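TASK: fixed-backbone design
INPUT:
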């Protein structure tokens, strides 16, 4: 059985996108911190801002970034998906998103 997680990207209180990961549940906080650091560094090298305030864009970037590491075990699920480790990424401003975690942690 995998170590599943669902990461919900939220914008101004509205859940926008949900990403399912088969094997990242118990260390999803570390995975997201590494992703946020990667996005900040990558966009800085492109002379752009990281767009941490755009939930749909950030969810798409996260899928692109995590896919090679996840071995293809990534998917998009309904936002109201409620099983496994749950994480909400609050994309409310340009700052590094705030992560809220609950569920089977």
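OUTPUT:
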């Amino acid at each position: 059985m995998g170590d599943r997680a669902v990461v919900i990207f939220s914008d101004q209180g509205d859940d926008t996108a949900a990403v399912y990961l088969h094997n990242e549940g118990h260390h999803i906080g570390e995975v997201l911190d590494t992703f946020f650091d990667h996005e900040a560094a990558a966009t800085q090298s492109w002379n752009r801002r990281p767009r941490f305030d755009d939930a749909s864009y950030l969810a798409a970037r996260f899928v692109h970034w995590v896919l090679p590491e996840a071995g293809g075990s990534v998917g998009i699920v309904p936002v109201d998906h409620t099983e496994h480790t749950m994480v909400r990424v609050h994309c409310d401003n340009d700052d590094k998103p705030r992560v809220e975690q609950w569920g089977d942690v």
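COMMENT: The mean pLDDT is 81.
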